[in-house]
Amino acid sequence: MKVCLDTFGCRLNRAEALDEEARYLAAGWETTGRHSEADLIVVRGCSVTARAQSDCEKLIAHIKRKYPAKRLIVRGCLAAANRGGEDRILETQLKAKRIQEIPVPSRTARAYLKVQDGCAGKCTFCIVPRFRGNPVSTDFAAAVDRAKRFIDTGYREIVITGCNLSAYACGGRKLPELLAAVSDLSPECRTRIGSLEPCAVAKDVVNIMSERANVCKFLHLPIQSASPGMLVAMRRPYRVADMEKLVVEARRRMPDIAIGYDLMAGFPGESEIDFAATKGFLARVPFSKAHVFPFSERPGTIAAALPGRIPVQVRRARAGELARIADENRAAFARKFIGRTVEIVVESESEIAGWTAEYLWCKASKSALSQGGRKFGRKGRVKMRVSSVEKHILCGDPV
Questions:
Q1: Strand-pair category, 157-162 with 111-117
Q2: Same structural domain, 124 and 209
Q3: Residue 369: its pLDDT value, please?
C-alpha cells in the first residue's frame, strides 16, 4: 500500500507530517509523491492566512474531484480536518507489528522535535487556537529521549518546534531547561529553537543560546508590528519596549546572532504613523530575516469585524515595502560572513549545501564542486569558508 502526504504551513505541520510518515513506513507502507499511485492521501493543511487556506482547500477539492474513490485524510489547521481520529488501518498494522512509540523519521537532513501543541492566546487576528486547542506540552523526559533517538540515528541538527513554544511547561520545567537538556546530549549535534514570543521565556532562551556553542544563534520573533496601538489592537502579550530590550540584549551577548521577525502589514486601523513606527523599529533594531505578509480576514476572528479596514492594495504595498527592507537587511547580514568560516548541515547527497547556524543558506562554490575530492553525506556537519555572497546566499569551499 502507498501513502501520499501533502503538507502546508509551518515547522509544526512539517514535524507532524514526518512523524506520521515514519509511522506508515514502520507499518509497511510505501510513500509516493503522486496522487494517482496512492492508496491513501493525507493533506495537512494551514489556515494562518486566507491564501494558505485557499491553496489547501483547492488541493482537497481537486483530489476529491479527480480521485473520488481514494481514501483522503485531512489534518492540521483546517475546518475540514479529521479531529481526534487516527487512521484505524494504520493503528491496527502498528499494533500487529508491536510498534508503540513513534518511529524516527529518516528522510530529512534535520530532525524536527515537536514538544508542544495548542495556544491559549487571544490574538484578534489568529484562527489557530480554534484548530489546535489549549496548550499541551510533551513530557520532559520523553522529549529528551526522542531527541537522543534522533542523534543515535545520525541527525546532527534538531529543530525544537511547537504551536506556541513559549508556553512549554512540564513538571515545573520550561523551554530553557528543555533546550539545555537537548543540547547537553551531544556536542556534535546542533539544536535550533523555533519561533518565540518576546517574553520572559525568550530572555532565558537567549541566556542558554549565548552559553552553548551547539545551540544555533538564531532567534525568530513573531512581533507582527512595532506600533504600540497595533499591538494593543492585536492583543499581543508584549510591548515594543519588550521587543527592543530582548533584541538589544541578545546582540550584546551574541554580536553575530541572526534575528528574524514575523511582520503583518495593513491590520485594521493601521495608520501611516503606525506603519512608520514599524519601519522605525526595523531601522534602529537590527535584524537579518523577516516573514512579511499582508493582513487577511479570517472568518471567526475578532479582527475580521474590526473597523478601519485597510484597502487590499494598501496592505500589499506596505507588505512589499517591508519585504524590500527585509531583503536589504538579509543581504547585508550575509555579507558580514565573507572571509569567515561557517558550519552547515548538508541537506542532500547531490550537493554540498545547507543552513548555517544563523539560518543563512550556504553552498559550495563552482570551483569547489569542479575539483571533486571529499564527499559529504546528507546530515553531516561541514565547515565552509565563505568567499562570496549571491544576494543572501553564501558561497564557499569546504575546509
A1: parallel
A2: yes
A3: 53
Burial class (CB in 10 A: 0-12, 13-18, 19+), 337: buried
- Is 298 or 318 the better-scoring residue by pLDDT? 318
- Tell me: do 298 and 364 sit in the same domain: no
Strand 353-356 and strand 341-346: the pairing is antiparallel
Q: What distance in Å separates the CA atoms of residue 396 and residue 399, rounded to the nearest whole number?
A: 9
DSSP 8-state symbol, 299: T
Domain count, the chain: 4
Q: The CATH number of the domain where 134 resides is what?
A: 3.30.750.210
What is the CATH number for 266?
A: 3.30.750.200
Helix axes 240-253, 272-284, angle to 10 degrees: 10
Q: How far apart (Å, rounded) are the C-alpha atoms in residues 334 and 79? A: 40
What torsion do the CA atoms of 75, 81, 86, 87 make, to the nearest 10 degrees? Answer: -80
Other CB atoms within a 10 A radius of the CB of residue 313 amount to 10
Q: Residue 70 has which C-alpha cell?
A: 481514494
366 conformational bin, left if phi > 0, alpha if psi -120 to 50, beta if neither = alpha
Q: Which residues contact 228 (CB under 8 A, 6 or more apart)?
A: 239, 240, 277
Residue-averaged pLDDT of the chain? 92
| Average pLDDT value for residue range 292-306 | 92
- How far apart are alpha carbons 175 and 169 in whole angstroms? 7
End position of a domain, from candidates 96, 127, 149: 96
- In the prediction, which pLDDT does 202 show? 95
Query: Tens digit of pLDDT for each residue in 286-297?
Result: 899 999 999 998
Shared-domain flag, residues 27 and 79: yes
In-domain check, residue 239? no
Exposure string of 284-301, with b = 16+ CB inside 10 Å and e = fewer, is ebebbbbebbbbbebeeb
Indicate whether 392 pLDDT > 90.
yes
- Residues 3-23 have pLDDT tens digits of 999 999 888 999 999 999 999
Enumerate the H helices of 254-293 as residue ranges: 272-284
Q: pLDDT tens for residues 71-88? A: 999 998 887 777 555 688
* H or E, element range at 73: strand 71-76
Domain that holds residue 388: 341-398
